[in-house]
């Protein structure tokens, strides 16, 4: 899969990333439905690498208050900046609204 990904055009890679966000959101919805049943209000994510920041973005995007934790604050700040940058790119493409970005960042 990785070799195939490296040979894909840049525009197609961006579309794949958006589809990945959608896929993560879709899969996390089943987790969120369980969270709703159990009255979970806050989701904590430990580790702000690629996977942790993606999970954090998806949780916040779906409306959950989300806490991202890592061993140093600068690592978390970098991850949050990346999440915001990714969301802003989706706004530029017209995939989401500024209001949704603001709502997600507040979470």
Secondary-structure element order, N to C: HHEHEHH
- Helicity level: 55-70%
**Strand order across the biggest sheet?**
1-2
Secondary structural class: mainly alpha
Mean pLDDT: 80
Strand content: 5-15%
> Runs with pLDDT <50, length 5+?
none
* N-end to C-end Cα span: 33 Å
Tell me the total number of β-strands.
Answer: 2
Structural shape = globular
Q: What count of helical segments does DSSP give?
A: 5
Attribute tags:
single chain, 107 residues, mainly alpha, two-stranded parallel ribbon, 5 helices, 69% helix
What does this structure look like?
It is built from 5 helices and 2 strands, in the order ααβαβαα. The chain has helices spanning 2-6, 10-37, 50-61, 73-92, 98-106, and strands at residues 42-46, 65-69. Helix 2 packs across helix 3 and helix 3 crosses helix 4. The protein is globular, with a radius of gyration of 14 Å. The N and C termini lie far apart (33 Å). The mean pLDDT is 80.
Outline of this structure?
By secondary structure, the protein is mainly alpha-helical.
Per-chain topology:
Layout: H1 2-6, H2 10-37, E1 42-46, H3 50-61, E2 65-69, H4 73-92, H5 98-106
Parallel strand pairs: 1-2
């Amino acid at each position: 899969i990785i070799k195939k990904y490296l040979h894909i055009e840049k525009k197609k890679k961006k579309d794949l990333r958006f589809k990945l966000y959608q896929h993560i959101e879709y899969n996390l919805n089943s987790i969120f439905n369980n969270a709703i049943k159990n009255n979970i209000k806050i989701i904590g994510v430990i580790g702000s690498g690629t996977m942790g920041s993606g999970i954090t973005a998806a949780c916040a995007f779906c409306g959950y208050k989300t806490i991202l934790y890592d061993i140093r604050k600068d690592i978390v700040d970098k991850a949050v900046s990346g999440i915001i940058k990714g969301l802003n790119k989706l706004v530029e493409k017209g995939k989401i609204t500024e209001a949704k970005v603001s709502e997600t960042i507040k979470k």
